[in-house]
UniProtKB/TrEMBL annotation:
<dbReference type="InterPro" id="IPR000623">
    <property type="entry name" value="Shikimate_kinase/TSH1"/>
</dbReference>
<keyword id="KW-0547">Nucleotide-binding</keyword>
<feature type="binding site">
    <location>
        <position position="225"/>
    </location>
    <ligand>
        <name>substrate</name>
    </ligand>
</feature>
<keyword id="KW-0028">Amino-acid biosynthesis</keyword>
<feature type="binding site">
    <location>
        <begin position="100"/>
        <end position="105"/>
    </location>
    <ligand>
        <name>ATP</name>
    </ligand>
</feature>
<keyword id="KW-0413">Isomerase</keyword>
<comment type="function">
    <text>Catalyzes the specific phosphorylation of the 3-hydroxyl group of shikimic acid using ATP as a cosubstrate.</text>
</comment>
<keyword id="KW-0808">Transferase</keyword>
<feature type="binding site">
    <location>
        <position position="168"/>
    </location>
    <ligand>
        <name>substrate</name>
    </ligand>
</feature>
<feature type="domain" description="Chorismate mutase">
    <location>
        <begin position="1"/>
        <end position="88"/>
    </location>
</feature>
<keyword id="KW-0057">Aromatic amino acid biosynthesis</keyword>
<keyword id="KW-0418">Kinase</keyword>
<dbReference type="GO" id="GO:0004106">
    <property type="term" value="F:chorismate mutase activity"/>
</dbReference>
<dbReference type="InterPro" id="IPR002701">
    <property type="entry name" value="CM_II_prokaryot"/>
</dbReference>
<feature type="binding site">
    <location>
        <position position="104"/>
    </location>
    <ligand>
        <name>Mg(2+)</name>
    </ligand>
</feature>
<dbReference type="InterPro" id="IPR036263">
    <property type="entry name" value="Chorismate_II_sf"/>
</dbReference>
<feature type="binding site">
    <location>
        <position position="146"/>
    </location>
    <ligand>
        <name>substrate</name>
    </ligand>
</feature>
Length: 263
């Protein structure tokens, strides 16, 4: 055997070890999930993730390939999250609620924690129409926009394990609610009108609120929409005075309860 053949054999041996370690790692991930569920522990533990990363960087700090190795490690972590997400949710998570309730914010956080794709409905529609939501309303009117929303929800039925961040008015159409429920669990995020005002006051991206940024207007519109939001919801999460992490954890626990995980 010449040297090259020997190196190749060593490499194959090394890859075998990596494969074995990865398979073992993913089995451990599943065990951790079961343990957390069994003991009603928080599923999201961002501090633990940070600790793991710090330890890894410390070990690597003098290695000349640290960037490349760390990149692989990040990919392993991302795929662990995917495995977790697929185990927890074999459906789409559809976030609904009033403007400023936190649909986009919560979607982004969940997406980072579970490596799940997010479909931000407003953004997708704005990209497809090549204009802002405000301009779509002004040019074609609200009905036109709502129909684009319906089409997008139907498209989402072909996907799985996606977070769908709805625009605030999506659940106003009965048809939309029917479509989102076909392979999604519907999460209603709520907040008091004062909280909403506080969150949206500096943004002009919500045409329905422009010129009406006051508690009374928000309260009235919220009240007018309340029954439809609640009828659409599989679970409700109140967001006032809670951190994004607290909201996400509550959301996950309620989704798990729906599946009877803790009974
Ligand atoms: N739980 C929260 N605590 C504090 N600020 C929040 C919270 N959730 C959302 N926000 C802020 O409120 C604003 C509106 O949130 P966003 O996610 O865009 O709402 P939506 O998509 O429902 O309209 C954003 O500036 C966001 O940072
Ligand atoms: O409540 C609504 O009817 C709307 C909410 C907005 O989305 P956000 O809820 O993300 O602000 C956006 O879709 C559009 O301005 C209409
Ligand atoms: Mg939004």
């Amino acid at each position: 055997m010449n040297d090259l053949e020997m190196f190749r054999e060593e490499l194959a041996h090394c890859d075998d070890k990596l494969l074995d370690a990865l398979m073992e790692r993913y089995t451990i991930i599943e065990k951790i999930m079961v343990y957390k569920e069994q003991y009603g522990m928080p599923i999201l533990q961002p501090a633990q993730e940070e600790k793991q990363k710090r330890q890894m960087l410390k070990k690597l700090h003098s290695n000349k390939h640290r960037e490349e190795i760390y990149d692989v490690f990040e990919s392993i972590m991302r795929n662990s999250k995917k495995i977790q997400a697929r185990k927890l949710f074999d459906y789409n998570i559809v976030l609904i609620g009033f403007m400023g309730a936190g649909k986009s914010t919560i979607s982004d956080y969940l997406s980072a924690m579970f490596a799940m794709d997010v479909v931000e409905m407003d953004q997708v529609i704005a990209e497809r129409e090549e204009m802002s939501i405000s301009d779509i309303f002004e040019t074609y009117g609200e009905e036109y926009f709502r129909t684009r929303e319906t089409e997008l929800l139907i498209e989402m039925q072909a996907r799985q394990n996606v977070i769908v961040s709805c625009g605030g008015g999506v659940a106003m159409r009965e048809r939309n609610v029917e479509e989102m429920k076909k392979n999604g669990r519907v999460v209603l995020l709520k907040a008091a009108p004062e909280t909403i005002l506080n969150r949206v006051k500096d943004s002009d991206e919500r045409p329905l609120l422009n010129g009406h940024k006051n508690v009374e207007y928000i309260e009235n519109l919220m009240e007018a929409r309340r029954d439809k939001y609640e009828a659409a919801a599989d679970i409700i999460v109140h967001t006032d005075n809670k951190t994004v992490l607290q909201i996400c954890e509550e959301l996950i626990q309620k989704l798990l309860e729906m599946d009877g995980e803790y009974v």
